[in-house]
Amino acid sequence: MVKLYKQISFADTFEECKDVFQNNKPKFLKLLSQHLDLSSLIPQDFYWSYHKTLGRDRKYSLSSMLSALVLQKILGIPTVSLLIIFLNLCHEAREFCGLPDVPHNSQFTRFKQDFVIYLENFFNHLVDITEPICQEINTTLASTIAYDTSGIETFVTENNPKFINSIIKKLKAFYKDKPDVDVYKMAYSLMPSSASANKEIKQLYINGYFCYVYKFGIITNGLGIPRHIAFLDSDFKKKHPEMHIVKKSDPPGEEKYISDSKSLKPVFADLF
Description:
Layout: H1 10-23, H2 25-35, H3 44-54, H4 62-75, H5 80-89, H6 91-97, H7 105-114, H8 116-137, H9 139-142, E1 145-153, H10 161-174, H11 183-190, E2 201-206, E3 209-221, E4 226-231, H12 234-239, H13 252-271
Antiparallel strand pairs: 1-3, 2-3, 3-4
Helix pairs in contact: 4-6, 10-11
């Protein structure tokens, strides 16, 4: 007997979507438009605040602004400036976002600054929506959690390679007669704990190199889907004085391990 149907697995669907994403961006955007109704996922209080703040109709809808930012993350576009160039060049992308034209860079910046609390609430709302989906995919993995720290790299002087290189150059000149001195380890201990422009921008050893970032802790489930994000700023540390960490001269990997361990319990305490 001839089978008139073919069983479609989740893996087949994933591979097909990945192929479309890599090789046919217009088709991928069309699929997103058909299967993702972002406007239905936005909490009502976000809508009210977005329109109440201006006091009149806005040129760009809330779902359009959020769609543009979501698209930026899906496509891995690193900056808003490049996102704007992409939207200007791609009609399908503007159509997906529902944009009559492309907003200015300052409009994206003000949107993120003015509605940061609502963006956080929107993320938490998505966590609640996606939890049953994760449980349906794999209960064991959905119930497993992992914790790590990371950061958002910033445009500050300390992130310029010339900053650390100048310290190393001075140390090499000072200890030129002492070859046993590890000037690189010493340079690490001499680097400031935070950026001079903003004390909230902290030094972090991440992906094998030093950088100055807005540090955060992130909890994901076994499927790799984020469940909670906590920025480890001054307000967070005031609530949890027990996580105070003194900068040491230990290897950076070991110090990051200590930092992760110190922040683990406070982040979980806030979540649960």
